[in-house]
Specification:
38% of the residues lie in helices and 16% in strands. By secondary structure, the protein is α+β, with helices and mostly antiparallel strands.
Length: 203
Amino acid sequence: MFRGIIKRFSKEVNYETEFTSAVKRSWNWKLEVPDITLSKTPFLTGDKAESALKVIQSIASKHTLEEVSQQCFGYMYFVQDALEEALQTPIYYTLGYVDYEKRPVFYTSEKGLKSKLGNPMSGVGAINLHAWLTTPNMEIIDLTFATTYGIVNNIPSVIGRYSFQHYSEFNENMVYHPQLVGEDYLKQIGAFVDFRALNVFVI
């Protein structure tokens, strides 16, 4: 978990509202969207959280930091099933960007994202977009942002960290912005490899 990220969001930012908009946007773009059920019950606490952290540590121990940073989409998709089992709830694969230290990172406008639907990429290519998981309680699980950002920008102090907390526990220096929900967008543009099917990652 990022150290020091404990303050609440400023009032003008509402992750749940943005998440709901991301679901509707995904529907409007004719993408496959999982059944969404929201809950007021926290999941990243107690025994469930401990089980989930053990899953995260087990998977992370088998992969280099470079693998994690270079395979963000596939890595987060791969861990989803195991984390759902540990937390005993569906969790939602989420695509978007992050305002980190008040600057957008992995940002592509909605117009730019939609334009790619008509122009599939040839194989797995680079795209300014980030993937994380959202629980029904709007808690965020992100295992790749810090490592990717740290490697790309040569900031060793953040490499290996991850986010594992409710959106309201982040402060204005790290704000998650969901744009789409589900992995279908990545499949449609040719930027997704199903690591579960390929068994690239081993638990």
